Amino acid sequence: NLKCPDPQAADQSKIAIAAQSHWLLLLHGVAATKQILEFNAMKSFLAPTNDVVFKLLFSKSDNSELLISFLTAVLQPKSPILSATILNPELTKGASNDKSIVLDVAVQLSDKSKVDVEMQVANRKNLRKRIPYYLARLHQNQLEIGDDYVNITPSACIVVLAYNETDEENFHTIYELREQSSNTLFSDDLRIHLIELLKVSK
Asked: In sequence order, what DSSP letters do the residues of 129-174 get, joined into one string?
């Protein structure tokens, strides 16, 4: 059983280790998500949906295998992900209940493509405006003067949601650039992945 240490005494390493097992369960298809979201007040401090815990899980260098496993499970790349470099590993604040923390985890993969991983617990009613903006920001500034456009690498945004954003049955939905009538793919350079945890069946 997972026991939570005193929040004031728990260091970042212990938080990450304690929460890591829950993400591994999800990644291996064991639907323990309901139990994660229904933690009591003591255990919720270590829940992976906690802002700081989520950031620590993926930003710590010794958790690189966890990050690569997560990205592989979601992105289903044609070639294996050999490495994943966190572009913003810092935590701007130390307390887990500090709302001014930078929540997103920006990652550069071995093929130079970039991924923004977000955790969204509450429905702020602005996701469909905010996430395309994040993706555009991530995708920009790849080229220097004189560079060829063929050198642009794909960008993706993965949003893990603790609420239901869509009416889709699947817990993992993918949004990309397609022709409206024929559904023909225009480009695979921009993709948004939504992971709705409440739809993961027990």
From this structure: HHHHHHHHHHHSS---TT--GGGPPPEEEEEEESS--SS-SSSEEE
pTM of this structure: 0.74
Burial (CB < 10 A; 0-12, 13-18, 19+), residue 128, is exposed
Query: What 3-state class would DSSP assign to 193?
Result: strand
Cα–Cα distance between 53 and 46 in angstroms, integer?
A: 7
What 3-state DSSP class applies to 73?
helix
How far apart are alpha carbons 170 and 167 in whole angstroms? 9
B/e letters for 7-38, b = 16+ CB within 10 Å, e = fewer, are eeeeebeebbebbbebbeebeeeeebbeebbe
* Chain segment 13-59, per-residue pLDDT in tens: 443 444 444 444 444 433 333 444 444 334 445 566 666 667 777 77
Whether the CB-CB separation of 57 and 82 falls below 8 Å is answered with: no
Distances (CA, A) of 26 to 114, 125, 156, 182, 192: 23, 26, 21, 35, 20
Lay out the sheet containing 185-196: strands in order across.
84-86, 105-109, 114-120, 155-161, 185-196, 172-178
- In this structure, are residues 194 and 156 in contact, taking their beta carbons and an 8 Å threshold? no
Distance CA 67, CA 168 (A): 26
- From first CA to last CA, the distance across the chain in angstroms is 19
Give the three-class secondary structure for 45: helix
pLDDT at 62 over 70: yes
